[in-house]
Amino acid sequence: MIENGKSSQQLIKESNLRLVFRLIHKHGTISRADIKKITGLSATTVSSLVEELIDEGLVNECGIKNSNTSGRKAVLMQVCPDGGYFVGIDIQKSQIVADVYALDFTSVFHITVPVVSGENLAMGIMHSIGAASRGRRIFGITIGLPGVIDPESNTLVSSTVLHAEDAADIYTTVSDAMPQTKVYIKNNSGLIAYAEKEFGTHGLSNNLVSIDIDDGVGAGILIDGAIYDGGGMAGEFGHISVDYHGKRCQCGNYGCLELVASLPAILEKTGCYCINQLRDKLDSGDDAMVNAIDDVAKALAFGINNIVNLIDPESVVIGGSIRALGAHLLEPLKKYFDEIALIKNKTIEYSVLECNPVTIGGARFAFDGMFGA
Ligand SMILES: [Zn+2]
User: Fold this and answer.
1) Which domains does the chain have, with CATH numbers?
2) Separation of CA 259 and ligand 1 centre (Å)
3) Residue 254 CA to ligand 1 centre (angstroms)
């Protein structure tokens, strides 16, 4: 068992305490008087809440602000980045990625653990958590999985990337080993959408769809700022059919988008061994490559149009290694989209996130779970 002292839920159970912490976090630096003004809480209440946060090591006094009205000096408060940490875990086909984020969301630790075929996934995850939490007070952990997660049992129901049975005991193993820490298990695409909202420049809206194109094709849906999971399988964008005469997919459907637009599908079609080689060929104007990517762009445009017709997000953000193709993919995609869309010029952009969006989205999700969104 990994001990982290007082549990994260016990630590900050009071809503006013969460409110004050969030305010300090949001503002960077703020005085007690300004907290009082914004929250409407009494000066005594603010002082005692701030005192409690200082005692917990979550905030500290960091300087003096000169008030221009009264001439009085006010002490400024700031969050202690190292007052606690959140862990985001990204389970991929061949590796487990874990990142530890401080309270200001700087990454302080990173580890990747290979997924060994036939080996229990939960063991690999515990290994990464053990390394990540060494000497740190971990407030929350979010595990992102590529697949459908049953929100009741917190188990992976199905996945075209992982074997569900390999992942069956992830939640119970981690939460039993870390009883003081809140553990979440979420679909990885939903966490990417969450990361776009919090940290992406295109995704500052609360209603957005993020499409991730790597080994698979997934979509994260954010409605009014919250991840929309549906019954657990919302966002299985890769399994929208773009050709019902097409090849049969692992999921049972025919002509799934994933069979056309996932990275393995694109590389197989173009005969390239990696995305950078493909980009180089596109850069040099290779006609066969340009035509192949034109087909991919068209399939994606039809898929995105289905989503837009259904939920009309403010923006569609495309992330993953596919971004290496740059304008070679995005320009024809937008062109086809505008040809078929009811409303033209929807914002369709590449993600600008350079960090791992699953781990930072997961860390932020656990942070909001503890401190309130
Ligand atoms: Zn499918």
Assistant:
1) 9-79 (1.10.10.10), 83-192+357-371 (3.30.420.40), 201-350 (3.30.420.40)
2) 7
3) 7
CA 164–ligand 1 middle distance (angstroms): 16
> What percentage of the chain carries pLDDT values higher than 70?
93
Q: What is the secondary structure of 213-281 as a DSSP string?
A: ESSSEEEEEEETTEE--TTTTTT-GGGSBS-TTSPBPTTS-BSBTHHHHSHHHHHHHHT-SSHHHHHHH
> How much distance in Å is there from the Cα of 238 to the middle of ligand 1?
6
| Tally of residues, the chain | 373
CA–centroid distance, residue 13 to ligand 1 (Å): 43
pLDDT tens-digit series, residues 338-350: 999 998 888 999 9
Write the DSSP string, 141-183: EEEEESSEEETTTTEEEE-SSS-GGGGTTHHHHHHHH-TTSEE
The pTM for the full model equals 0.90
